[in-house]
User: What shape does this take?
Amino acid sequence: MNNPEVLIIDDELPICKLLVITLESSDYKTIVANSAKEGLIKAANHPPDIILLDLGLPDASGHDVLKQLREWYNKPIIILSVQSEESDIVLALDEGANDYLIKPFRTGELLARMRSALRNMYAENESNVFISNHMEVDLVARTVRVNGELVKLTATEYTLLALFVKNEGKVLTHQYLLREVWGPGYIQQSQYLRVFIAQLRKKIETDPNNPTIIVTESGVGYRLSGE
Assistant: This one.
């Protein structure tokens, strides 16, 4: 898509100025809101392609804004916040954020995360085949190939990998993965996840000890990298 529109909801004027300069130099269109109320109004009146949301807004919690947006807005939302506790990050991701960057952040990393989130959104209705680096996953045929060779996965390994593919670039929390793959009764059984992630990496990564496909987000979860 040409010139995606970005809504920035943040009350820190220097951050907003930096984001506008960075994004517009990368061919994004920008809209800025400096409060929760203004952000919700602008999002509703002209839904953007992606939202950058600060959690520390002057008139409401960013978490409340996120929950209100997720009642109707199904495009990517990336959190930009000084809140760095794992509990804050996990809560925002579980509330529906696609990604979370801690301030101060590197603009190059932000742009990469935005590209990944937008690419995943546009690819959902275009193709059932995911190709990245040396791996190809066909979600219709339920096949996985690495370097052109068919790889045999167990049913659970495939379910886990397919979940990553459908959410490419998005951080998936431990609790989310456990609930989706094993069920609500297993959300505290993190050892299940560690074992299956390790098994999956052995089958799809060039170097399982230095993974580049399924990347660990320390203390939070994992993401499938399409970069």
